[in-house]
Each structure stands twice: as structure tokens, then as C-alpha cells.
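Appendix C reproduces, verbatim, an entry submitted by the partner laboratory led by Prof. M.T., so that reviewers can inspect both the input and the predicted structure.
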Amino acid sequence: MEDLLKRITINPDIAHGKPTIRNTRYGVAYILEYLAGGDTVEDLLKEFKDLEKEDILACLAYAAQMANTKDFKISA
């Protein structure tokens, strides 16, 4: 997972400092929204030709890490 996370960068000058896939302006949240909406990894690779499968897996790994390190309040 550590290697995948190297694909995620945070730069205050890109996307208002939100996490993006390295060398792109694709936000991690943007990719996760597609996945949450039902798109598959294969769908995203067809749509975003400059991404690799590992980039999408890196977004999932980043989300998993955030879920394990942050407390989120979710209403019942």
C-alpha cells in the first residue's frame, strides 16, 4: 500500500491543496465519487486514458488510510 500512496500528492498550488493523483489534476475525491457512483476501474481507465490502474487503486488506498486515521461523524 505504501507504494500506491506515493502516487498521491498534496500541493497547495494544485487543486487548493487537496490530494491529487501525481502528475495530474485529478482529485482523489473526484475518482472516488466515480467509483461510489458505480463506475468500475475499467470504466475509469477508458474515460481517463492518462490514468493507470494503480492510480485508481492509490485513491482507494488513500481513502482507506484516511478512514483509519480520522474520526468521521455520520448521522444515523
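The chain has one domain: 2-69. Additional entries are available on request from the coordinating office.
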